[in-house]
């Protein structure tokens, strides 16, 4: 059986690590990644968040084989069948409890976005509880978006592929990046119960005009006045653009961590203290554009500056054009490639499609045997292109056909 197995696709460096693992799991192709931080004098090889992602993939799949070299600089991943929260596959009571270590510097969206891509092709629904001292629900300095942005700007896009029922992302306990950007002790639960054989073919060629703006201002362990100051600063910029602007305020206490001092286990310390803002603009055609900012772990930035910064980021996202923002483009393009064997089309801004992230995604998808992308100028819009993607037609091999 091993003689007939396809050879692994070879990549180098840790760039696009989560994306490549996701594509490997979706297509069933093994991958070999080498030169993972080989020159780092203190932390060569896989980082804590990458190890945690591998553990998550092992929990939601059956038969996956993960081989890591002694130094951690070489990884061989042979994906198994996506089983979700099936009994006996890492789930207890229908829920997979995934604990993230305190050394994690990435936000929980680093795990949520790949997991949401795998969920429609799972054998059974996925129900994962993210817990532990390393869960950061807010945006992070590393560039991860907040859990609120995943809930309001990415998950609604699945409805365009016919995936819309029984999908919920619950923020059970909020947290910001802790000391030196590590850990946060938050808690998130993802319930994804809509599995399909094949996603519908997407045709999204009109970005429309912005009709409403929604957002969430959150703070943990700091006065609620920080939220009010962020909201006022953001509305001062956004109100002239559209009158339908509403930003919700969420105030919560900072999570507590038990002290590691073996002589006194009763000592607890606060972590995940800070504040942030997530904004989403919706157009008349249902297109979504998002922006995220968070206070740095070192502090020193007033809430007014963060509110104005987030508002400007949202306007820049809208100005980039297209019907899909940079945050959601990888998800949309991957689902288009996994849909039925038909040509899907989506309008994307040139500033979005030309980024290193999207160009690298296109090359990786080609390496996994997916079709290439076809481009043409959008009609009537100067800075947009229409991307045509032919579906692969593989879809959910674990779902029974009745």
Which properties best describe this structure?
single chain; 402 residues; alpha+beta
List the helices and strands and how they pair.
Elements: E1 9-12, H1 17-27, E2 31-34, H2 48-60, E3 61-62, E4 65-68, E5 75-78, E6 81-82, E7 96-99, H3 109-118, E8 126-131, H4 147-154, E9 167-173, E10 187-192, E11 203-204, E12 210-220, H5 225-238, E13 245-252, E14 256-258, E15 268-270, E16 274-283, E17 288-294, H6 303-319, H7 329-337, E18 343-349, H8 350-353, H9 356-367, E19 373-377, E20 384-390
Parallel strand pairs: 1-2, 7-8, 11-18, 12-13
Antiparallel strand pairs: 2-5, 3-6, 4-5, 8-10, 9-10, 12-16, 14-15, 16-17, 18-20, 19-20
Explain what the structure shows.
The protein has about 400 residues and is an alpha+beta fold. It contains nine helices and 20 strands. The chain has helices at about 15-25, 50-60, 110-120, 145-155, 225-240, 305-320, 330-335, 350-355, 355-365, and strands at about 10, 30-35, 60, 65-70, 75-80, 80, 95-100, 125-130, 165-175, 185-190, 205, 210-220, 245-250, 255-260, 270, 275-285, 290-295, 345-350, 375, 385-390. Strands 1-2-5-4 form a four-stranded mixed beta sheet, with helices on one face. A hairpin with a 6-residue loop joins β4 and β5 (about 75-80). The mean pLDDT is about 90.
What is the residue-mean pLDDT, rounded to a whole number? Answer: 90
Distance between the termini: 29 Å
Largest sheet: 4 strands, mixed
Contiguous runs where pLDDT drops below 50 for at least 5 residues: none
| Tertiary shape | globular
The largest beta-sheet arranges its strands as 1-2-5-4
Q: Structural class of the secondary elements? A: alpha+beta
- How much of the residues is beta strand, in percent? 25-35%
N-to-C SSE string, H for helix and E for strand:
EHEHEEEEEHEHEEEEHEEEEEHHEHHEE
The overall strand count is: 20
**What's the tally of helices?**
9
